[in-house]
Amino acid sequence: MRTPAARTLADYGVIVRRSWWLIIGTVAAALAAGLAYTSMSEEVYESTSAILVLPTASDTAVAGARTAGQVNLDTEAQLVKSTEVAVAAAEALGADDPDDLVSRVSVTVPPNTAVLEIAFRAEDPEAAQAGAIAFSEAYLEHRRSGATASLDSAIAAATVGLDAVNADIAAAEDELSGMDSDANGRAGLESDLDGLRQQAEEIEAEIAAIDAQQGAITPGRVINKASVPGAPVSPNAMFNLAAALGLGLPLGLVLAWARHRLARKVAYPTDLVERCELDVLASVPPGVKFQRREVFGAYSPGGRVFSQLRNVVSSQLTHDQRVIVVAGVAPGPAASVVAANLATAMARAGDRATAVAANPSTTVGLPELFGTDSVPGLADVWSGRVDLTEATHAAPRQPSLNVIGPGAAARAAGPTSEAAAETFSKLAEAGRFVVVDAPPLSCSADAQLLAGHADAVILAVQSGRDSISETAAAALAMRQIDTPLLGAILLPSVLGPMNTVPLPTARREADLRESPVSQDETPTDSLEPVDEEEATTQVMPAVPSSAVPAAEPR
């Protein structure tokens, strides 16, 4: 038996196929939401300028930087969005909120370059271009100001040093002017004065070099000027639809899986295998329409299904195993339809078969499907009123098939173990297959009792009607006895109305007129007991197996 752990890709395909409408609906809803979001979103334009950043005197190489060289472009990218740059850009644009401008700016650094790409977004193309230009110019000016301030500081420091040296030179010259030409120390003082004058010249040269460097400062230049964008960057219809599809498809698959796992009714054969741990002997496909509750013809689509079921069942039974119990899960005609068609398929294959109506909970059973008498029947045999041969009726058009109806003495107490064992033994000794239509397991334990004296059990499950929990409970109940549970057969949710072929006796016609509504779903326990002293049983003579009874009109 296959269990849920043996799930294959084909099983997931079944889940997708059974809920395709849910998946498509979810994807369609997601795409509609993406279109709605696209149509409701305001258009946003983006303009980008590219700046080649050049090193200045204040730049030094940074260890571990992402880009090589003296300029750390990651730091420069942060400076573009700094408050000082934003304030300068706001003044250029005439804006009052620098923080709002910063939120519209994005800076990227292309790999292995010394380029900053400054992008600015706005509601119209011209504003986007103006914003990108304003931030580019404000950044370059900020960088120029930083480099100039550094050189100004160097010039100021050199000037202070030059003033000190000049003061020393003036003091040395005054002292030297007051000394005689042959005075002691005059030569040393002249040497010191020459050194001070040389030092002053060096400082003046340094200041001149810094001045020249200050005039040649180039913090960077715009290599790609911001242009007026021709189309908005947001909303992006293709991106939004792709995102909606990427979200809607997984969500649809999750919903399909949840629908599969949370389903309460049996709908597909995989439900029986995965959730009820039942082998599926046969499944009547949805394409097979029940125009009425009937016994299928040999070459009809439904007839082929039950012929295959007969072959499967026969292959799993030994020569001495003859009795097969067909039990439904919930009240209804499912078990009767399966039992009637299985018995007919056996008769067509040349086997002698007897269909036994042991389910008194429905008025649409084997006699109605075969057009035979329901009395005398099984209950009359078990009550001792008639012999088994008298309750056996030949099925029309099937000489090797006999039918035993439920009888007129059906009681809510149900069968006894001894009576069931004796009846099945007698029928099996006659060399016949015995197909028993048992009461539903959800409202009676009679099916379990009957199965205890049978050789095999089959569950008749109706899709869209029988719940998964009740089906699993029915399978468990049958596994608790020694009789092998062969598996289940799945029927469509609609089995059609009852055939209106005239019944063979006036009694059955009267019974049908007295029943105002169909009692297909009447539980066994709801039947009223019959008083044996007041009950009148119509005893029918035994019909030879070769005879075909004709319907008796009123």
TrEMBL record:
Name of the protein described by the UniProt record: Wzz/FepE/Etk N-terminal domain-containing protein
| Bias-annotated ranges (Low complexity) | 541-554
**Keyword terms:** Cell membrane, Coiled coil, Membrane, Transmembrane, Transmembrane helix
Where does the record say this protein resides?
Cell membrane
Q: Where are the transmembrane segments?
A: 20-40
Here the segments flagged for biased composition (Polar residues) are 516-525
Coiled-coil boundaries: 162-213
Q: How does it sit in the membrane?
A: Multi-pass membrane protein
Q: Cell membrane: is it a keyword of this entry?
A: yes
Species: Glycomyces tritici
Concerning InterPro entries, the annotation shows: Bact_polysacc_biosynth/exp (IPR050445), LPS_length_determ_N (IPR003856), P-loop_NTPase (IPR027417)
Indicate the segments forming the Polysaccharide chain length determinant N-terminal domain, all copies: 14-88
- Principal localization reads membrane
Task: Give the residue ranges for region: Disordered.
Answer: 508-554
Q: Which family does it belong to?
A: Belongs to the CpsC/CapA family.
Query: Record's PANTHER family?
Result: CAPSULAR EXOPOLYSACCHARIDE FAMILY, TYROSINE-PROTEIN KINASE
